[in-house]
Amino acid sequence: MIIFNILFLVFFLLKIENSISVKINAIAYAFNENRHIYGLLINDFNQYAIDTGLDVQVSLNLLTPANSTTEVNDISATYESVLSKKSEKYDLYFYDSIYTSKFNEYFIDLNKYFSKEYLTRFDQKLLKNTCIINKKLVGLPVSLDYAGLYSNRRLLNEYNKSIPTTWNELLETALYIKEKEESKGHKNIVYYHGLVPDSETGSCSLIEFIHSFRKSKKSPYPEARSQETGDALTMIKKLKDELSSDMEFLSGDDYFFQKIFTDNALFLKFWYIPGINPAYNITILPGNVEGVSGTVIGGNNMAISTFSTEEKQLASFKVMEYLTSYDIQKKNIKENDLISPIPELYNDENLCKEVDCEFIKSFQPINRPSYDVISYDKYSQRFRTSANSYIYGNASLPEVLRNIDDISRVYYFSISTEESYLGLILFIVFCIILIIMIGSYSFLFMEKFKSHFQSTPYEFWFLIISGSIVLLFRALTEYGKISYFICQSKPFLLSVGVTMTLCPVLHRLIVNFPVVNEISEWTKNNKWRFMLIFFTTDIVFLLLSMIQPFKHDQRIDKYGRNYKVCANQGSFLPIVVNSMLGIKYLTIFVMVVLLFLEWNLKETYNDMSYMMSTIAIDIILIISLFVVDNITNNNYIYYFGVYFCIFALSAVTNFIFLYGIKIIYILLNPKKMRNDENMSDEKGCKENASNNNDLTTLQSAKI
């Protein structure tokens, strides 16, 4: 009979299992296996699906320190190892909101399923800072975590002290009570636990402490090198030195849970857990001035894997829709003490009879800078290491503030001498060269120089000078912040500059080709159509590059300084860029071939060596572009400085060897110039005499 019942039960369970059309696999991580919401949420949905006949069931794989060897700081790497393999193992991911930018490419755009009207229920600033990347809705918040101050009611009442609203007030209150308690022989009281361990929790405490030192409630998060940040770190160190100890301050969550259930702690800082111990009041964290507070935005988002089938993505959407509905969010607020990402719920009169809505609305949250750095994990580690070197060590405050600034600050090449004089020096050189190039136009209008520019159509000399200036401005694009405009203009300026400087030379070489041919004749008679072919190609490549524009690639040099460079993205843009470069390489190759074929021609003999020098240097500079990236990557100043020099050198050499050398030669050889002028005048007199003789002969013939 027992065997029969067991078989019947197995059969019944299998029947239920087989009746479910879509099975969703979800994964989540909890720091504490006894305090998490995921099991409650999933069980709630599965029951809802059964009650409503929805053929969807969710299976949860919950990772915790107890059942996983993965360290807390490595959980993002665990997720990424699964996602990077394009695994279909999990469909629904619960993840820390700081990793939205990191996992962005692996999750679908939820705008596909959620209407704009539905999304308006969420805190829009929260969505922008923790869920949206480049207009893509990567995830949705499940619940939020805010930090608060736990104050011992008994001790405050005993000494007639109120809950502090500023850090100075907290320090004064704690020092007063400490003096009184120690006079009674009470040595084991914790007067302030700041929760600043060497972990992500410590980074959160530091960020929100700095945020609480804003000048006013509406002021932005303080800059790294600001007075506010310096004052915040000074106060943290002061609180640690006068009220606590290194060991106590470095202790983490476990230490809080040890103390919160005792009566021997005055002030404890931790995440908001209502009702954990009625002996302690929970309030928002103090600030530097009254009315200003701060808390990091904690909590988890949920997202759908892009590698799941369309059917499972739709089923996962139904799970998310249920968990973010008004009714379920309200239920979680009342029954599970969760903070909801839907602000409107805290205006519900019935709900606010059971929950302190005004207290929840009084939090002043700040998101962690996960969108502003390449790797938030590395940023967080470096940030707290720098801050802790001052709080727990002997590092100077200015040095620490600079180190913190270096972690998140994006450096760029400029004329500022704060980091180096190189930018200013090269800019001065740029200005001098630009003035010389612009001034050189004047030689084309001087009668005594005109005889030396007859080998090439006069308009082409303007192109050569202008092309050199364009290349010089290509060098200037290495200055300043990287932007879409800068990234698009870099290859365009290079392409146009090369066209304007080298194509007039190519035109001359084709026209002077020693063997009569149709190409030379057409080129000679259609010089502007010839040039238009190359300019049109440049414009076409510019338009094609806009289809899939350049992106910003952030890097870190060996000194820990962030900087951005323009980088190709996708598969189409590299094809466009390489095609453009291919045409330029082909143009240079054709010029080299023609130079060798025409080396001994009288028409171009004097200029051959200069043309060859120009092309040789351009080839060397092209090769250097391929190797300079790896050589200078260790220092952002040298990186941009070397690139500037390469393009500036290209502009200068083209200008000198194609045009400037003639000016220099004439100015250094005035006698030769006068002889050339006399020869030109003599040639002109002979031509005039010949023309007069021809005219006399013609008139005589008519007579």
Automatic annotation (TrEMBL):
Q: Write out the annotated subcellular location.
A: Membrane
Q: Where is the G-protein coupled receptors family 3 profile domain?
A: 422-654
Per the UniProt record, one Pfam family is 7tm_3
**Recorded GO terms, molecular function?**
G protein-coupled receptor activity
Kindly give the membrane topology term recorded for this protein. Multi-pass membrane protein
Q: Keywords on this record?
A: Membrane, Signal, Transmembrane, Transmembrane helix
Q: Where is the composition biased (Polar residues)?
A: 688-703
Region annotation (Disordered) maps to 678-703
Segments traversing the membrane: 421-446, 458-477, 492-510, 530-550, 570-597, 609-628, 640-668
Predominant localisation class: membrane
What range does the record give for the signal peptide? 1-21
Q: Would the keyword GTP-binding be found if you checked this record's keyword annotation? A: no
The organism's superkingdom is given as Eukaryota
- What is one GO cellular-component annotation here? membrane
What PANTHER family does its record include? ABC TRANSPORTER SOLUTE BINDING PROTEIN-SUGAR TRANSPORT, ARABINOSE-BINDING PROTEIN-RELATED
This one is known as Periplasmic binding protein-like II
UniProt source species: Anaeromyces robustus
